Amino acid sequence: MNSLSFEAALHKYVVLFAETYWLPCAWFFSYFSYRPHLPAMGLDLNGISGASKCMVGCEVLIRDVKPGVKILKLVDRATRYFEALWEIPEGVSYNAYLVETSSGFVLIDGWKRGWGGLLLKKLEELGVLNRLTHVITNHLEPDHAGTLPELLKSNPRLKVLGHIMAKNMIRDFYGAEPDFKPVSDGEEVAIGGLKFKFVHTPWLHWPETIVTFVEDLRVGFTCDVFGSFGGFEQVFLSELSEGERAAYFKIAKKYFADVVGHYREFVLRSASKLKEVILKSDYIAPAHGLVLSRDEALKLLEMYEDWSSKREKRIVVIYGSMYRFTEKIAEDAAKSLAEAGFEVKTYKFTDTERSLVSEVVSDALGAEGLLVAAPVYENQLNPLVRWVLEITAHKTGCNKVLFINVYGWGAKSEEVKRFLSNLKCREFDVIELKPREAVEESAKLIEKIKSFFLK
What we know:
Blueprint: H1 3-20, H2 22-34, H3 37-40, E1 52-54, E2 58-66, E3 69-76, E4 81-82, E5 86-87, E6 92-101, E7 104-108, H4 116-125, E8 132-137, H5 148-154, E9 159-162, H6 166-174, E10 179-182, E11 188-191, E12 194-200, E13 210-214, E14 219-223, H7 242-260, H8 264-279, E15 283-286, E16 292-293, H9 294-309, E17 312-321, H10 325-339, E18 343-350, H11 357-364, E19 367-375, H12 383-396, E20 400-406, H13 413-422, E21 427-433, H14 435-440, H15 442-454
Parallel strand pairs: 7-8, 8-9, 9-10, 14-15, 17-18, 17-19, 19-20, 20-21
Antiparallel strand pairs: 1-2, 2-3, 3-6, 4-5, 6-7, 11-12, 12-13, 13-14, 15-16
């Protein structure tokens, strides 16, 4: 059987399988379509043995972070779009932490909504479900607090601690009204002989976000802060090779840009608080990604501050092209800008290729500028490129944008200018071209494009 007929036969049976068994097929596609991307990023996710397997593209890892602290890690390779927006071929994990006290156990954060039954099962297998006394919610988003309803149903006497806003949010999201204690910024609460200190970190990335520091154990639990994408079967960043660690920080930047990027000014406002927690901790335990040592967390905090405030000599080229006219000028410009000394990242949206918007946003964070090229579509701005630029500017800000507008019969330069002005781009310009000009006169326009970014 030749490769073409084999692929056709495989497709036939996969479609039949999907029609009959949709849920297992979700795992099939997520695992085999997405996992091959990972080795290209320098990551080995074959991981450690002994994990408790679960159905449909996930697995559970339970390990000690240090004596008295366990991680309950749900590795999720079935979710393709984080927050239903961001493409994550790397997968993602949801990390809950179990802290042992003299009076029982405290659960810090939880798993994504829909996995409550599995979390209860794992807690029961550990013999701690009936010994839970408190749940700490650092952040009420349902990828962390989504298992709270099942926990409260299993034990209505559980005491829940969180930001003062969390009480109403628990009611509004989950219809629950637990025994709730609000914690103020800097407050210390003694539970079973351990001292829990709470630090408010608003808008990282919701208004009620807090960080929990257990002084006696020297562990900081930071929820989304210092998190990362990645369906790693490892628990600690130190378990990765040097090359894998470098790749991890790249994924961590993508996570930061996509999730926290819009609120990056609040990173700078909370940086001193976060540094204080790190310096007092042996480990920083986020709710996504890998557990960090003190030095690793300090390095990531420094990166956070740089990502929030600095620009690099990088141009991100974003283009849409239906019939390859726009592609010609965009690719020629990208090559010329690279020769002029810029780091150039190119993302394309064509009839055969579609880049990951999650990675567009990551590379746009801290870039000197954006070169955007798109054909007019039905007498308006190309809707896909418009959305990509809009979400990118929302997450990363808008510094310098040069927009190449290719049109057949309806020029849109004034509409583009209004659009860029509404995005609050610091500096922008628009070049209008007919399709033929985009191909035949691209060389003449290169100097104009370079001069825009070099001035």
